[in-house]
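Session log. Operator J.P. requested a structure for one protein chain; no other inputs attached. Running the standard single-chain path with token output.
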Amino acid sequence: MFNAKKGIKAIILSAAIIVFSLVFTPNYADAATDGLYLGGFPAGFSLSTTRVEVVGLCDVLTSGGMCSPARAAGIKSGDVIDKINGEEVNKSSDINRIIAREYKKYIVDIIRGGNLLSIEVEPVKDLAANGKRLGILVKDSVSGIGTVTYIDKSNNKFASLGHPIADADNKIIEINGGTVFGSLIYDVKKGVRGAPGELKGAFESGSVIGQAKFNCSCGVFGELAENYNCSKLVKIEKASVDKVEIGTAYIYSTVYGNEPESYKISIVKVDKDNKDNRNFVIKIEDKALIEKTGGIVQGMSGSPIVQNGKLIGAVTHVFVNDPTRGYGIAIDKMMEAY
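Structure written below.
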């Protein structure tokens, strides 16, 4: 749900944030995976980033009238503010803190289209706010809906998405913390060939799953909230990618409310050494899910994949030219990441 990639054979998108309808008798975890619980429920991600992106330009009320120093200097929407006078800008408040100082000139380093540019900008005094301003609107956070893959209660961890949150250039966004909330799915935009679908959800602000700590190629991981209740979740064992078989498996996902259901799929291909973590090619076989969503849709990223009663991976991407097919990451990769 957070980014798009182009594959060799097909364009794919992130499938991109409790009562179970079980089709297997859960295996209770052994000592190696004690405290591992099956996910499949939706989560709302509100993550702080270490990048400050310009999302608009605005005029500032000055003694000489209205003006935007940033616009006059050539700064554009989509630019990422990297540094001002050599000082790193990691959050929006850094901008006001730096330009409040008395410098003879202000050099703003920006990243645009992968290139680093240095632009001289002269801040102006804002009569309305009684401080200096550049005349820009910025954001330093990302938010969206995805799916929790598993809870590791023994280590107070959770894992989700199965793929990174990335920017428009497909680069992994470094996060600086954030909160992951429970979420309610209230609608689905059905996926069709050439146009991926999407789960639409609302954050439950009073239901905190945990604090996000790490965004990497294997997903978003974090610390479980101290009071998080696992009593309604199902304990499960994991299985290595070496144990995965071509054939029937199930995904656990939520397409309405916050209660996961199981849906039949097929494991079409296994590629345990895939460098992009596309360890499985999967195909949705469940007619009920296809009727509801058209197949895999954005927001389903992280939906756990279960085979023979064991957790083997998570859904990550959908083929745009065939929403019933997509990729999955092996659970080994996710657990090794954090």
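Operator note: The chain has four helices and 24 strands.
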